Fold:
Amino acid sequence: MRVDPSEEAERVHAAWRVLSPDDRDPAVSSEEVVRLIDLAGTSTGAAYGRSDVVEALHDREPAAVAVAADGTLAGVAVAQVAGADAHLLALALHPDWRHQGIGSALLRQLDQEIIHRGASRLVAVVRPGQVGEDAFANQGFTRTDGLHLYARDASMVPSELEVVERFGGHVPPDGLWESLLGFSTAKELLERRVVAPLGHTGLADQLGLRPPGAVLLFGPPGTGKTSFARAMASRLSWAFVELHPSLLGQGVAGARALRDALDELSRVDRLVCFIDEADEIASDRTGRPESQPLVNELLKAVPVFKDRPDRLMVMATNSIAAMDPALLRPGRFDLIIPVGPPDEAERTELAAAFVPAGDAAEVARRTDGFTPADFALVAQRSAQRAFDRALGGGVAEIGGEDVLAAVAETRASVNPVAAGQFATEAERFARR
Ligand SMILES: Nc1ncnc2c1ncn2[C@@H]1O[C@H](COP(=O)(O)OP(=O)(O)O)[C@@H](O)[C@H]1O
Ligand SMILES: [Mg+2]
Structure:
């Protein structure tokens, strides 16, 4: 092997030397390396952080260390091999040891190490003017201008993921919000009053608009309350955790379980916490003394929960009239939103999506009081009719008459009496 004379000169330099890999490991800890990077105020920084460096050292990725005659660190370079490339994670020089050729010597040492690991190129992303940049020019690196670095934080850090998963939660897939059909009043309201302000906190802040922290949805079963809650998390790319009243329990024990759960969840940012069938834990205390501790806990917990930004509490109930009135007073929920059965225009859209074989306008006319859940049922029943017919040798295709027959077989979830009651409750309880 040809020995570069300047390299030879540096190795025997009286004031500093680059350690061999064998000398390095016992002599230099990753804490010292990180301390030097902090002190030097520089690493390649633009693309990598300290934790990358620590991990690479731990994994024995290529590294080069220069020490002064007194044994203190003068400079470090750390890389990580990925296929044919090795990426420079850090190049840092002690402030007392700049302009001594140490940067160049470290890069040469790294060159030898990456060849041993099977890599053939060393790549560095640096900020313009960064300390040590001269070394790249001196060592024959080519520079590519005009690259842009794109970076985004992951939706959760590992400790948050651990809590979310313990509660059976997850970050819902993208696109749930868009998949909800119909520009229903509820969807439009939630979009404008909840999702948009939470998704554009900068603009909201600038105008002094306080995004909501707690929302109550109410309305008959099957109208989409649960779907809206999950879809809001999807739209925001936030985690979604559902607390089930039946798992919390009743009375004092239930109140404690609720407090503990919310306490743990306070460690997670960007979170939608959903409580379905909220009337079960928040029913009127006067009629049911056993619900007193839980209601009291909720009265305390909701304001605390929503005090922090980037969190949304969503509760849903089919029977808002059964909820404790104290919870419905201002200060707890920022918004109380009725989610009713779809009107004829929305039903036309639901019909076109759920039962495309039918005449959407005709189906919409015949489905007063049908909820999205009813449409899902009509779709199944239409398919079953076509299936039965096909098994008997007929055409394997859903027809308009299958759809109309299925509609006729299906009872509207929201009958006129329930619809009237909902309209009255919407009038009385809604806070938009
Ligand atoms: N706007 C909508 N568009 C399409 N499907 C919907 C919509 N709202 C609800 N659904 C569907 O209807 C069913 C009932 O909705 P759900 O959210 O469980 O209602 P709720 O919680 O009010 O009882 C679900 O299968 C859901 O996917
Ligand atoms: Mg529901």
The longest helix spans residues 372-391. The longest strand covers residues 73-82. The pocket of magnesium ion (ligand 2) is lined by residues 225-226, 276, 316 (CB under 6 Å). The radius of gyration is 32 Å.
